[in-house]
Design brief:
Layout: E1 5-8, H1 26-30, E2 62-64, H2 65-68, H3 73-89, E3 92-96, H4 102-116, H5 120-124, H6 131-164, H7 171-175, E4 184-190, E5 202-205, E6 211-216, E7 222-226, E8 229-232, E9 240-244, H8 246-251, E10 261-263, E11 271-278, E12 285-286, E13 306-307, H9 308-316, H10 322-325
Parallel strand pairs: 1-4, 2-3
Antiparallel strand pairs: 3-9, 4-11, 5-10, 6-9, 6-11, 7-8, 7-10, 12-13
Helix pairs in contact: 3-6, 4-6
């Protein structure tokens, strides 16, 4: 099994405005004495169509992980149907009773907070290193354990997703070579902002893997797009927020969608979130499952095949990814 890849991202990340000559992190900026407004180079204006409205009558589905691993075939059959509906209609769901200790989740968030609070010069020394060396021995062991446990949860969820698509449990694991699948640990920092209406933590985007697990430090800020509208997400305590990613959309030939989401900032508290996406192995060429093309489904392939590494490289270059492989509808 390939080790999890660690990426610590301070969000909003270190940026250099076009007119600035010195690299300054947003965290350093907001902690400056007397800061009451944000520089224009950091502003982000929402157009009317991007504004978040009130929450719809529906709520994000909740999936009980303990039922997914149940030996009762009736319970498992029902939760598989619920999982299919959540992936089709929302692309997001809250996962409860997942078996990852609350204490481990808290320790991991605390460790990331300790890292973010290091002096900037000290943090720069850790660029390119793994999270074990970034966080120190104790915190690194916590992050390693957290990555291991979340990987197990995602792989079990993908067994359920395989069944919801009409395949055997191990279909996705084998097709995507998950034993060598790329797992990323991304810790995101959103410092309090004096003018949150003029800023954005992370603009609207989709995730590149198969499934992503997200936790936060109980400071809201995540918004998802559902039926063309944006609304705030308020996860249940001790739950994971799970979203379907680009490569699950591709593999399912569009049955499941990779949904846009974003993070907003506030003027009252600093938010920390940890996202752990699991994707195929870097050498895997991902395309719609052959069983979902034509035949009984009657749907032609809606995406071009692409090696996962090439997809990741394209994304890191800031180029459109999912739209690049999506074929036009005839």
């Amino acid at each position: 099994m390939a080790p999890a890849t660690s990426l610590f991202v301070e969000k909003p990340t270190d940026q250099t405005p076009p007119q600035a000559s010195k690299r300054v992190s947003v965290k350093t900026l907001v902690e400056s004495l007397g800061l009451t407004s944000i520089p224009s180079s950091y502003s982000y204006s929402l157009n009317p169509n991007e504004s978040a409205g009130s929450e719809p009558d529906e709520t994000i589905p909740t999936i009980d992980f303990s039922l997914l691993t149940s030996t009762d075939p009736h319970q498992r059959s029902k939760i598989i149907r619920d999982l299919d509906r959540a992936c089709r209609e929302w692309g997001f769901f809250m996962l409860v009773n997942h078996g990852v200790p609350k204490s481990l989740m808290k320790e991991t968030l605390d460790g990331c907070n300790q890292f973010f609070n290091l002096p900037m010069e000290e943090k720069k020394e850790y660029e390119g290193r793994t999270f074990g060396s970034r966080l120190g021995l104790e915190q690194g062991e916590v992050a390693e354990e957290y990555s291991k446990r979340t990987r197990e949860v995602i792989k079990e969820l993908l067994k359920g997703v395989s069944e919801s698509l009409g395949f055997e449990q191990s279909y996705i694991e084998k097709a995507m070579n998950l034993e060598s699948g790329l797992q990323i640990f991304a810790a995101n920092l959103y410092p309090l902002c004096p003018q949150p209406e003029l800023a954005m933590g992370i603009p609207a985007h989709t995730d590149h893997g198969l499934l992503t697990l997200l936790i936060e430090n109980e400071i809201g800020g995540l918004q998802i797009q559902h039926n063309g509208k944006w609304f705030n997400v308020n996860p249940l305590p001790n739950s994971f927020l799970v979203n379907t990613d680009d490569h699950l959309e591709i593999l399912s030939n569009g049955r499941y969608k990779s949904i846009k989401h974003r993070a907003v900032v506030n003027s009252n508290a600093t938010r920390i979130s940890i996202a752990v996406p699991l994707g195929p192995s870097l050498d895997t060429v991902v395309s719609p499952a052959p069983e979902l093309i034509e035949g009984e489904s009657g749907r032609p392939a809606a995406y071009l095949p692409m090696k996962y590494k090439d997809y990741m490289d394209r994304q890191l270059e800031g180029k459109p990814c999912l739209d690049h492989v999506r074929l036009p509808v005839a």
